[in-house]
From TrEMBL:
Signal peptide: none annotated. Pfam families: Citrate_synt. The keyword Transmembrane does not apply. CDD domains: CCL_ACL-C (cd06100). Keywords: Acyltransferase, Transferase. NCBIfam families: PRK06224.1-1. This is citrate synthase (unknown stereospecificity). One of its GO terms (molecular function) is citrate synthase activity.
Amino acid sequence: MTTTTAEITTAAPASPEDRLKDWWSTSIVDIEPGRIAFRGYPIEQLIGRIGFAEMVWLMVRGELPSPAQAALLEACLVAGVDHGPQAPSIAIARMAMTCGVDINNAMASATNVLGDVHGGAGQAALELYLAIDARQRAGAPLAEALEAVLRPLIAARQPLPGFGHRFHPVDPRAPRLIALAREAVAAGTIGGAFVTIGLGVEDWLAAAKNKRLTVNIDGVTAVIFAELGFSPMLARGLFILSRSVGIMAHAHEQAQQGGRIKGPTPPAFGYRYAGPGRRSLTEPD
């Protein structure tokens, strides 16, 4: 079959206005004068009718969660808000406030240090669970999947994210979240595959290391985030959202307490100098 020139149609070029509008494309928010809608819901219908955890879910997932899903997400957000002024992000927020900046600067300074080492363990743990789950989906039993994913990490002496804690023998936040996750499995809110994987990692580690490294806040929230269908990137984002509450509270408290240019320790404690001994430049001839 041949096509004549008359049958060939060419799409009209986009107008400058359309090209400008297409520069940023979003399915999250629709705003016009006098109207604001999130994921299609007018803001006036959301205010006073849904909670903050539900709003978070709507914004990042596009749909509203069930009440049980929202409650499980909120439990994770509550659990991660703070871990004391010795946590680097919290300490930075407090020090920043004593330098005369405002609360937004202190909060930004604090959240900027929440990276792979401090703040990224939940994301890494979820990635670990997904790797184990992928092997199971390919047909491997759990024990084989655990061995295949975890043994190389142990052999390379890499720390396993989400297990053990430098301060707590047992992270006091974890058992309650595990209990809530199990209740959610029993109620049919979540499937339970990642609960099994997370607790399986804990058991595998106990056998491999001959000591029990219990799941911590990062490991258990990663289990719940995986069960709820959040991506690893959002696991980190949700932790930072949660910890921002503690950061804000500490920054505000420090502002009330006052203090000026406070460093990480009182000046009287000093620090250890490890450089060369006292020396001087040779005088020129």
